[in-house]
Design a protein that fits this description.
The structure holds two protein chains of two kinds. Chain A is an alpha/beta fold. Chain A folds into three domains: about 1-25 and about 310-525, Orthogonal Bundle (MetI-like fold); about 40-135 and about 230-300, D-Maltodextrin-Binding Protein, domain 2; about 135-230, D-Maltodextrin-Binding Protein, domain 2 (3-Layer(aba) Sandwich). Chain A has helices at about 5-25, 25-35, 75-90, 105-110, 125-130, 170-175, 190-195, 205-215, 240-255, 255-265, 270-275, 285-300, 305-350, 350-365, 370-380, 390-415, 420-425, 430-460, 475-485, 490-520, and strands at about 50-55, 65, 75, 90-95, 115, 130, 135-145, 160-165, 180-185, 200-205, 220-230, 235. In chain A, the strands form three sheets. A five-stranded mixed β-sheet of chain A has the order 4-1-5-12-6, with helices on both faces. A five-stranded mixed β-sheet of chain A has the order 9-8-10-7-11, with helices on both faces. Chain B is about 35% helix and about 25% strand. Chain B has nine helices and ten strands. In chain B, strands 6-7-8-3-9-10 form a six-stranded mixed β-sheet, sandwiched between helices. Chain B has a four-stranded antiparallel β-sheet with strand order 2-1-4-5. In chain B, helix 3 (about 110-120) crosses helix 4, helix 3 runs parallel beside helix 5 and helix 5 runs parallel beside helix 6. Classes of the chains: A alpha/beta, B alpha/beta.
């Protein structure tokens, strides 16, 4: 499975920070409390029974994914494995959704106890996290369009356009062999649709993915290539939990639970038999696999009526996503407008240190990517003892970011108010503060409103970045729905409509403000 | 109206030794002036002679480098480093001084009525009803009762300047300063403004006017000051100065205007 470059960088950063994090007084206190009640500590647990684990459940069949047949249900072979491990440890395994890039940083932050997401046990990954023993070993496979005669081996792939997922063993194999025609994808769904529509000649990918994403128009060909082992990831500071889970995993292998799970998902293979030993008794039927295939079959051949029904069933999810987008954006806007004004006033009228401070803030915030700021505030600040909820962190990151842009708008607005206005106010015996509040700022505001409207619409769209800190807003809802149902068009139109509806009140509000102020715009005063 | 040469003169404003430089260039070189209550004084002189700067030093919109200004019982001295205490003192002085600008400087985001009500309510903490009553009677007086709900950009220049006068008067100043109040106006609009100033003069308002309108200076002033190169070169009765200027600078200046 993939491991984004960003995640690796973040992982390195947070491995580095882990020492600091654990030195934090709050963390140490909870850790020692837990040690009294349990032999291992469970970061992120809400009570003594809780076992929170994280995965990215978007487009992640058959690992951990949203069951297309049952809205709101999570399933997958890794999901079932975690349930079984929870039972072994006498705890309730609880799934925590997190974006792929946030999985390991979240582990370092102590948001949850472990991560399972087809993470390959490579040396680079081992540098960032602790791994359990492998719970699955598999291979890479070649996928072609059905009926076509294409490359059947790694050497034969040479010279073809080959797709794979980023940071997988398949990608490394391809790059080592033939560096110039490899296309690396983030999403399985996109990868396979590009093979179908002819953008790719072949795919090389982990066998479970090949198995589940290969539809009627595609076929798996050739011999298995390479060897891949997946492990459950833990924080480097938590070897005792790792040991406990290893023990539980051993028990699940021994009593045949893992075998039964894999067989149900049609994932029991000769390589697993090599690893775990031959299992006694008749093999359980692959019911989970068949259910999934049947559901997908039903969906692809669905009538307009069934499609409409599906879209209606999306509405509550989209509504929740829209509320999240609206909530984060609106609060961030309030923060941006208020703080932006203070920054602009500090730059225009403050003492020298205030001016420099505000200037530095604006330059730093405008000069760095919002995504980094979001990740820094959520995952980085805990190193300094500031632990914010995802919602607060999201509002703060967006608000602090846009405040810098609003400050620049205000600065231009303040500069556009003629000097005579403040002189008139002072001559009327107002104080400087009164002159600003009653005369200058209201006039600056009125020139800034149209620009601000633009910024706010941009902010609503940028709010999609908070999905990296586990908030499920509209964009995240889109990714989830479209990759679960392979429907990018219909879902996309629904989400686009939701964005427009969320933005509309702000556009209207800004129009009203402009109109109200419009009657005084125009005549210069010199 | 001129108070006459009574033995007990009532000096409402005294400026002493006002000096001001901008970037090493001396604009005012020690200007002193005593103003009696009720006087209307016109300050004339060539462009760049420092007459506007002098006016702006009287209410500390410009901080003089040297000199002191007293208005009523408040005295403010120049300070090399303007401190908070100096600003507090200047603030007290401005309570007695109203000012009208060449470009009117009405607040464009507020109606005419709100322009007049704003400072009494915010600065003097007068109640809204009382502020409205004061504002309405002043707007009536300057002939703007009909347009008081309008925004400034819907008024003619003459109306705007009369609104600006009403706005300054609402603070009940002892002295009104006018910085070229009619320079931006056509002659007939100027007349609207000048007649308001003449009416105020009849009521006993003390007024200092920087102006290029020599007809007004001659006809309406109690006293004319002629400023040149940052100094008062000549001052006195307008009829005397205009008919028979003593100083060559004054003569030169008046000749170029004719």
């Amino acid at each position: 499975m993939k491991m984004g470059a960003l995640m690796r960088h973040a992982a390195i950063l947070f491995t580095f920070c882990t020492g600091l994090l654990c030195a934090g007084a709050g963390y140490a206190a909870t850790a020692s409390e837990r040690e009294v009640t349990a032999p291992f500590m469970v970061p992120g647990a809400v009570d003594s029974q809780d076992l929170p684990w994280a995965s990215d459940g978007e487009a992640n069949v058959p690992y951990v994914f949203h069951d297309p047949a049952h809205e709101g249900r999570i399933t997958g072979f890794e999901y079932e494995l975690m349930q079984a491990i929870g039972t072994q440890l006498g705890r309730n395994a609880r799934f925590v959704q997190n974006g792929w890039d946030g999985l390991i940083p979240g582990l370092a932050r102590g948001l949850y106890a472990m991560v399972i997401d087809g993470i390959e046990m490579t040396p680079e990954h081992k540098a960032a996290v602790l791994f359990s023993r492998p719970y699955y070993v598999t291979v890479d496979r070649i996928v072609l369009r059905k009926g076509e005669r294409g490359p059947m081996s790694l050497t034969a792939l040479h010279g073809h356009v080959v797709g794979t997922i980023k940071n997988t063993s398949a990608e490394r194999l391809l790059l080592a062999h033939d560096a110039h025609d490899v296309r690396s994808y983030d999403e399985e769904t996109n990868l396979f649709s590009d093979l179908k529509n002819g953008r790719l000649d072949a795919i090389l990918i982990d066998e479970p993915i090949a198995l589940y994403y290969t539809s009627n128009e595609l076929q798996i060909v050739g011999e298995p290539i390479g060897r891949v082992a997946y492990g459950i990831a833990f924080s480097k500071t938590n070897p005792r939990l790792r040991d406990a889970v290893d023990q539980a995993l051993g028990a699940l292998i021994k009593d045949g639970t893992l075998y039964r799970i894999l067989a149900r998902w049609n994932l029991w293979t000769p390589y697993m038999a090599d690893y775990m030993g031959e299992q006694a008794g008749p093999m359980p039927p692959p019911t989970a696999w068949e259910d999934y295939r049947a559901t997908m079959e039903r969906m692809s051949g669905s009538s307009v009526h069934a499609m409409m029904q599906r879209y209606v069933s999306f509405l509550p999810l989209i509504f929740r996503g829209a509320m999240m987008t609206l909530g984060v954006s609106a609060l961030a806007m309030v923060l941006a407008v208020g703080l932006g004004l203070l920054l602009a006033l500090a730059r225009a009228y403050g003492t020298a240190p205030l001016r420099w401070g505000a200037g530095l803030y604006v330059e730093v915030v405008r000069g760095t990517p919002l995504l980094i700021q979001v990740l820094f505030i959520f995952y980085g600040l805990p190193a300094f003892g500031v632990r914010l909820s995802p919602f607060v962190a999201g509002v703060l990151a967006l608000g602090l970011n846009y405040a810098a842009y609003e400050a620049e708008n205000y600065r231009a607005g303040l500069a556009s108010v003629p000097r005579g206005q403040s002189e008139a106010a002072i001559a009327l015996n107002m104080t400087h503060v009164q002159a600003l509040r009653l005369v200058i700022v209201p006039q600056a505001f009125r020139t800034v409103v149209p620009v601000m409207t633009n910024d706010f619409i941009a902010l609503i769209k940028d709010s999609s970045l908070v999905s990296v800190i586990t908030l499920t807003e509209l964009s995240q809802t889109y990714i989830r729905l479209s990759s679960t149902y392979y429907d990018y068009v219909g879902t996309g139109l629904l989400i686009a409509l939701a964005y427009l509806l969320v933005g509309l009140p702000f556009v209207r509000l800004a129009r009203m403000a402009e109109k109200r102020m419009g009657r005084v715009v125009g005549k210069g005063h010199h | 109206m001129r108070q006459g040469y009574s033995e007990l003169t009532d000096l409402v404003l005294q400026a002493t030794g006002i000096a001001k430089s901008f970037g090493g260039h001396e604009i005012l070189r020690g200007v002193s002036l005593d103003v009696e209550r009720g006087e209307l004084i016109s300050i004339i002189g060539p462009s760049g002679c420092g007459k506007s700067t002098f006016l702006r030093c009287l209410n500390f919109l410009e901080h003089p480098d040297e000199g002191t200004v007293r208005v009523e019982d408040v005295t403010v001295a120049s300070a090399r480093h303007w401190r908070r205490s100096d600003e507090v003192q200047a603030h007290r002085l401005r309570a007695h001084v109203g000012m009208v600008f060449q470009s009117f400087n009405l607040f464009p985001h507020r109606t005419v009525l709100e322009n007049v009500m704003l400072a009494p309510m915010q600065v003097k903490r007068i109640g809204e009803d009382e502020a409205r009553a004061i504002a309405c009677s002043l707007l009536e007086k300057v002939g703007l009762a009909a347009v008081k709900e309008r925004y400034p950009d819907r008024l003619s220049g003459g109306q705007q300047q009369r609104a600006a006068i009403a706005r300054a008067l609402a603070m009940k100043p002892s002295v009104m300063l006018y910085d070229e109040p009619t320079s931006a106006l056509d002659p007939e609009l100027s007349e609207e403004v000048l007649s308001v100033m003449r009416a105020l003069d009849r009521e006993g308002m003390t007024q200092l006017v920087v102006t290029h309108d020599m007809r007004f200076a001659r006809a309406a002033s109690d006293r004319v000051l002629f400023l040149e190169a940052g100094q008062i070169v000549e001052s006195g009765d307008p009829d005397v100065i205009f008919a028979n200027p003593r100083e060559p600078g004054t003569r030169r200046f008046l000749r170029t205007l004719l």
